[in-house]
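Narrative of activities, Objective 1.

The group set out to show that a structural description can be obtained from nothing but a protein's sequence at a throughput compatible with the screening campaign. Below is one input-output pair from the validation batch, recorded exactly as produced.
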Amino acid sequence: MELQIAALAIFVGVFVLATLRKVHIGVLMFAAAAGVGVWMAGMTIDKVVAGFPIGILVLLVGVTYFFAIAQANGTIDVIIERAIAKVGDRAFFLPLAFFALTIGISAMGSPLAGLVMAPIGMPLAKRYGIDRMLMGIAIGSGLSAGGFAPTSLFGIVTYGTARAAGIDLDPLVLFTVALGTNLALVAAAYVLFGGFKLLNTRTTDGFGTAVPRFSKERPTPSHPFERDGNIARGKQAAQQTIQVLDGPRTEAPASGPQLNRNQVITVICMAGLVLTVILMSVLGASPDIGVLCFAFASVLTLCDPQSGKPAVAKIDWSTVLLVGGIITFVGVLQTMGAVTLLGEAAGAVGTPLLAALVICAIGGLVSAFASTTGMLAALVPLALPLVASGDIAGWAVIAALGVCSSIVDVSPFSTVGATFVATVDADERPRITTLLTRWGLSMVVVGPLLLVGALVLPSSL
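Output recorded for this entry:
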């Protein structure tokens, strides 16, 4: 037990040291994981390195590379322009639309399938003047809610494990709890990150940039890609007003810019990516979004090598290292039994209600840095002693534990949060990383208090 406690202390200490010294946490975590694994856990260095999340590396690299090509050839800009034309001045509803779309995709079997919305939603939020934190939480909450649908992985693991242990957890009840919780979180994000101010914005300046209602000024875009697109569209609009003969002046067409050959191919590949993920999920397969992104990116770079070359430089290797180092250390802790030790300690708490609160907090804390699916499979059985006495409802404890382990996934140390960081501009990443860290870790406390109070407490009265 002493070794497990010491390893947990080192894990926390590395976070503190990296924060104080302002160094890359992933670098320190990987080095510390090797030291703890070899000297304290008796693992070989090969086994420690095997804990590095290759799947997440492939996911992040594939997603950022694929959509970097789409940005480089101008497809993302065209999609944004047309989406703006459809939504009009209703910027307030855009995060809600992405929340709903992500629920639908994530409910198809693989919760992480909803990540295909992030590289489109985050740049679109920038063009509307929407805080990227609001859009990120909307997409992340949609992923969490959809993941607990009866047809999706989180839901299947949670209610499947509960039923195997003799606990009658209705899949629709679980989904309702997840949906209600994540709706509440989106509402909170609207309050905290200026969502209701969007009611006073519109996009009628002809450039697709969100400006305040009644404002006559057009802000200068800060993103180079956006500025270049505006210049090109301005020239096109000017040319269309020139008539060979004397005639009336004309305006730019409202349909937006036309797609060229490479952009049409890119749109087909993007649609193919989403449809492939959905189809594979329906057929019971487990789609690897990273591999699919590499496959479609190969098609794009062969069709347009000039866009493929600069896209390599836009791969977010820093985030890959950050997530990889932390998850490697968590893998060492799991091998040592430190995670199991935390669960057993929670079960040893005398009061069932307090024990439920503790184990939900543990599930959220560990899931913020590791696989949510793995935590659900590991911690749901550990919660069974809490319901054996019959003092609290088993379905309530399991539902609370499951959702608590999911709503922390917007942490930048998890796959979901890391993807959000990777899909914003480089100058925004420090702010988004900081805010996602605060939000994700706050859910470790807020989630258990909210869900245990709403589900477990009434069942114990």
